[in-house]
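User: Quick sanity check before I run a bigger batch. Here is a single chain. Can you write out its predicted 3D structure?
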Amino acid sequence: MTAPNLPACLDFTLHWEGGFQNNPNDAGNYLYGTIGGGPLIGTNMGITPRTLMSWLDRPLLASDMRDLTRETAAAIYRTRFWNTVYGDSLSAGVDLMGFDHAVMAGPHYSLAEIGTAQAASVDAQTKWLDAERMKLVQLRLTVPADGIFGPVTRAALSQRPVAQNALHILYLGQLQEQYYRRLSGFTTFGIGWLNRLRARQTAALNLMDEAHVSA
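Assistant: Done. Predicted structure follows.
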């Protein structure tokens, strides 16, 4: 159980989401989730108009979004995102990966990728992991970081369960990157999405390491 990680995960997400913004090129800022779909309400701390309207259970005013408090945003994130991806049951690090991606992509997509990663064996993950992420695994194993999964890396990985957990987090990150790259908005927002993903992976690995040290 990793419920104690929720505050850290919330802090990460709120840092990246920032405060109120109403970029007209972002479909999520419109009431009905499409560009030009209803009034331009904006988002605050990452909470979209549709999410806030559903939470308040009444027609949404522009002032509702501007006046949104951190406490309300946190309650929404816990109920609609953290609980939906079963954050309390995810291992340290995977909880942040699943939660923050759910905020960006929706809980349904995040759950699907968590399931895909969980179903993949260590061999499958090493087979499909890209070279840059493999280098991160190799650095943890203190083997040559050439991005190639060969016999030296295989032998070291088999002896290091914590490194296998890191591999799992990075493989999940790769699945999430593939999701972002498929979106039509990637040309406009892709650099920011990938920067956030890299920061998420780093923070997730730190949470994993902290849990291992305290175990």
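The chain is about 65% helix and 0% strand.

User: Great, the batch can go ahead then.
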